[in-house]
């Protein structure tokens, strides 16, 4: 047999009110029923929880141990009911998905702001590309996500945030011819981009296709920070978010290559579950937009 919330509720009410009779009346059941719940609970635990002193009862040592667990169990049950009645993800776990650019530039500030505004909130953050985040949204496994050109289902709403500019980036020591580079100039170079589910991969393919070309040597990496390190170390030329590498370019650790035709920027959207939307989630949507603007994340 398993412990039930009904047994825990009976135990907690008896402990607080001091008698089986008062607890039964408070819950709205008969005294034999509440006595049976306690017998079943004691049998499940293998412990005596109360000692009788006339009509009053007192907690045993095991009963004193259980009362803290009971308070937490009943509190969690109340939280579950409130969470689902309100449909508000900020009353429990906020499941957030973000691009790597947002994670590198804005996520820390977002977490700090959430900590101040919602001190009891827990977060689960997924950093991913378009394919990963779109799938998680469609499977109801994220409440809110920042996604480039998402492919989402009808139960997810999307709000435009701006455009993410991509650029070909090289390490300062890499031997690259000067001037404006075309697809034919780079087609034989080793390059590294995000995986095929990422918009950078699609942008690379489209850029070379403007000249009827397809690069021969393409490596992929699903982590932008690692990709940036490899590019700056001279491993390959990378197609990266220009905003994410702006400080490295400014400090001379990376070089932006001048290219023609220009690489199409991709649109970035803020997406959320329609069924979860309310004032609190709207506040998080506004906060994400505010931080993206403050950090000049997007065009």
Give your account of this protein's structure.
It is a single chain. This protein is α/β, with parallel strands linked by helices and 299 residues long. Helices cover 44% and strands 20% of the residues. It folds into 3 domains: 5-86, Orthogonal Bundle (Arc Repressor Mutant, subunit A); 89-163 and 267-294, D-Maltodextrin-Binding Protein, domain 2, CATH 3.40.190.10; 166-264, Periplasmic binding protein-like II (D-Maltodextrin-Binding Protein, domain 2, 3-Layer(aba) Sandwich), CATH 3.40.190.10. The chain contains 12 helices and 12 strands. A 5-stranded mixed β-sheet has the order 4-3-5-12-6, with helices on both faces. The protein has a 5-stranded mixed β-sheet with strand order 9-8-10-7-11, sandwiched between helices. A hairpin with a 2-residue loop joins strand 1 and strand 2 (56-59). Helix 1 packs across helix 3, helix 1 crosses helix 4 (61-86) and helix 2 (20-27) crosses helix 3 (31-45). The longest helix has 26 residues, at 61-86. The termini are far apart. The model has no long low-confidence stretch (mean pLDDT 91).
Fold blueprint:
Blueprint: H1 5-17, H2 20-27, H3 31-45, E1 50-53, E2 56-59, H4 61-86, E3 93-98, H5 100-105, H6 107-117, E4 122-127, H7 130-138, E5 144-148, E6 156-164, E7 166-170, H8 183-186, E8 191-193, H9 199-209, E9 218-220, H10 224-232, E10 237-241, H11 246-250, E11 255-256, E12 266-273, H12 279-294
Parallel strand pairs: 3-4, 3-5, 8-9, 8-10
Antiparallel strand pairs: 1-2, 5-12, 6-12, 7-10, 7-11
Helix pairs in contact: 1-2, 1-3, 1-4, 2-3
């Amino acid at each position: 047999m398993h412990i039930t919330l009904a047994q825990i509720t009976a135990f907690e009410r008896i402990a607080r009110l001091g008698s089986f009779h008062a607890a039964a009346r408070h819950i709205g059941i008969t005294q034999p029923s509440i006595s049976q719940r306690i017998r079943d609970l004691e049998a499940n635990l293998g412990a005596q929880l109360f000692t009788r002193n006339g009509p009053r009862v007192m907690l045993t040592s095991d009963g004193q141990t259980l009362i803290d667990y009971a308070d937490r169990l009943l509190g969690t049950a109340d939280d579950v009911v409130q969470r689902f009645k309100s449909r508000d993800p900020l009353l429990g776990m906020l499941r957030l998905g973000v691009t790597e650019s947002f994670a590198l530039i804005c996520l820390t500030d977002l977490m700090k702001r959430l900590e101040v505004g919602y001190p009891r909130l827990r977060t689960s953050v997924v950093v991913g590309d378009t394919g990963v985040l779109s799938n998680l949204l469609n499977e109801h496994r994220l409440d809110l996500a920042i996604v480039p050109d998402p492919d989402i289902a009808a139960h997810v709403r999307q709000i435009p945030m701006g455009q993410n500019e991509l650029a070909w980036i090289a390490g300062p020591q890499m031997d690259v011819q000067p001037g404006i580079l075309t697809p034919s100039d780079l087609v034989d170079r080793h390059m590294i981009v995000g995986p095929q589910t990422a918009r950078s991969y699609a942008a690379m393919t489209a850029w070379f296709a403007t000249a009827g070309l397809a690069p021969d040597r393409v490596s992929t990496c699903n982590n932008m920070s690692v990709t940036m390190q490899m590019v700056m170390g001279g491993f390959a030329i990378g197609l990266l978010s220009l905003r994410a590498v702006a400080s490295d370019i400014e400090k001379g650790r990376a070089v932006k290559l001048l290219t023609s035709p220009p690489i199409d920027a991709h649109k970035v959207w803020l997406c959320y579950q329609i069924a979860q939307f309310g004032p609190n989630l709207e506040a998080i949507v506004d906060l994400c937009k505010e931080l993206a603007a403050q950090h000049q994340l997007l065009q």
